[in-house]
Amino acid sequence: MDDHAFARSMWTVVEPVHVVTYFSAECAAANKEVGLRGFWMGYFGSRGAPLGPVGPGVIEATFHGFHPAKVRRAVPDAWSFAAPEAILRARSAAAATALRRLHGDVEKVAEQVNPLLARIVADADATGRTLFAANRDLTPPDDPVEALWQHATSLREHRGDGHVAVLTAEGLGGAESNILAAAVRGTPAQWLKDSRGWSDEEWAAAAGNLVRRGLVDENGEATDEGRALREAIEDRTNALAAPAYRVVENPAELFGALRPVARAVIDSGELPFPNPIGLPRLSG
C-alpha cells in the first residue's frame, strides 16, 4: 500500500474514534453539563476549545462549510457559559466513556497504539494547520482512552485542515463544497443545507456557480467533471495527510489495532450513514 492510500485508510479508522464526540449520548450530556447550550453551541464550543476563547471569525475560517451566521449564534457566547479549559476536560472524558461503552477492550488498544500515535502527532507538520496545531499542543490526558481519543482528534484535524486548504484552492466556498459533496456522495443536500445554515437563496446561488463551472447539472446531479474534481480533491487531501504517517514502520499493524474500535463505533448505529462527515463504512 502506498503512503497516500495508507493515509486514506487511517482516516477510516481514526475518524470513527474521534466522531463519538458528535454523536454519543455521553458527549452530548457532557457539553450540557459543562454549560454549553444546544447541539450546535456544543459542537462549535467543544471542537473549537483547543483554540481558546476565540472570536467567530476564527471558527468560521477553520471549520469551513458553515454559514457565518450559524457560527456567530454560538461563538463567542459559548465562552461565557463555559471556559475552554473546562470544555477540554469534559470532552475527552466523555469521549473515553463512550469508547469504553462501545468497545470493551479499547483500553488495551489504547495502550498498544498510543506511543506510536503520539509520535505521529508530534512529528506531523503543522504549517497552515490551525486546528491540528491547537490540538497537538494540548497536554495528553493521563487516561489512556482519553489520550487515544485526543491523538485521533489531532490526526483528523490534521487531515481536515489540509482538506480545507484544497477546497479553498479549488475556489469552493462553504455552500459550493457541500453541494458538490452531496451530489457526488448521494448525501441528502437538504440535510447539509439546513445543518450548515444556508438560506434557500444562498444555496441556489452556490448551485448556480457550480452549474456555470460544469461541476453539476441543472438537476443538481454531479457531472463527470464534478466527480473528477471531487476525486482530485480527495487524492490531494490524502497526499497532504500522508507525510505524517511515514514514521509508521508497520502500517498494517497500526490499522489492524484501530480497526475493531472503529468498527464498534460504526456498528453501534449512533453514527448515521450517509453522514455529513462523508465517512464511509469500513469494508470487509
Q: Can you tell me about this structure?
A:
With 284 residues, the chain is mainly α. 70% of the residues lie in helices and 0% in strands. The chain is built from 15 helices and no strands. It has helices at 3-23, 25-34, 38-48, 56-63, 68-72, 77-81, 84-102, 106-123, 130-136, 144-169, 174-185, 189-196, 200-212, 224-241, 251-267.
How do the helices and strands line up, and which of them pair or pack?
Blueprint: H1 3-23, H2 25-34, H3 38-48, H4 56-63, H5 68-72, H6 77-81, H7 84-102, H8 106-123, H9 130-136, H10 144-169, H11 174-185, H12 189-196, H13 200-212, H14 224-241, H15 251-267
Helix pairs in contact: 1-2, 1-7, 1-10, 1-14, 1-15, 2-7, 7-10, 8-10, 8-15, 9-10, 10-14, 11-12, 11-13
Provide a short characterization of the protein structure.
This protein has 284 residues and is mostly helical. It has helices at residues 3-23, 25-34, 38-48, 56-63, 68-72, 77-81, 84-102, 106-123, 130-136, 144-169, 174-185, 189-196, 200-212, 224-241, 251-267.
Cα shape: globular
| End-to-end Cα distance | 17 Å
**Based on helices, strands and strand pairing, what is the structural class?**
mainly alpha
Determine the number of helices (DSSP H or I, runs of at least 4 residues).
Answer: 15
Order of helices and strands: HHHHHHHHHHHHHHH
What average pLDDT do the residues reach?
96
SS elements, strand count: 0
| CA-atom Rg in angstroms | 18 Å
Low-confidence stretches: none
The proportion of residues forming helix, as a percent range, comes to 55-70%
Bin the strand percentage. under 5%
The largest sheet is:
none
User: What assembly state would you assign to the polypeptide chains in this entry?
Assistant: single chain
